[in-house]
Amino acid sequence: MVREYVESEVPSTYDLRAVPPVRDEEGVTQTVFRGMDQMVGLTVIEPDKPDAEPHSHPWEQVNVLAAGRLEFLVGDERITLEPYDALAIPPGVEHTARSVGERATLFAFWPLREDRLDATGYQREFGGE
Fold first, then answer.
1. Whole-number Å distance between alpha carbons of 35 and 30
2. Coil, strand, or helix at residue 85?
3. Which of 9, 58, 63, 102 is most enclosed, with most CB atoms within 10 A?
4. CA 86 to chain centre
5. What is the pTM of this model?
6. What is the DSSP-derived secondary structure letter of residue 90?
7. Which residues pair with 109 in a beta bridge?
C-alpha cells in the first residue's frame, strides 16, 4: 500500500534542489516530495519557458510562490503572483502559468498522486534509496 512507510527512516529530510526532477523541460524543472496523503511539487520556471496549453486535473491544487513573479491563467482570469502569494485552483479548472521577467520558484500542493509516485523513489521512508 502506498501509505506504508519505513518507521526507522522517519523523520527524513531532503534538499529538493538536489532531487532528480520528474520534469526537466525547456524552461521548467519540477521535483516532487510526498507524505502519507499529500505531495508537494517544487517547480522552477524560467522566463524563457515556452507558453504551455492550459490543463486541468481532478484534484485541487494549492500554489505558493516562493520567488519571482508568475502570471497564472485560471479559467478565463489572469492573475499575477508575487512572492508569498497563495492561490487555490479547484478541481477541473483549466490553468497554466508563466514567469514574468525572472526565474520563479513555485510550490504546488496536491493530494497523493499515483502518477507522481515514481518521482519520489529517492525517499527512504517509503522504501527508496
1. 17
2. coil
3. 63
4. 13
5. 0.90
6. -
7. 40, 62
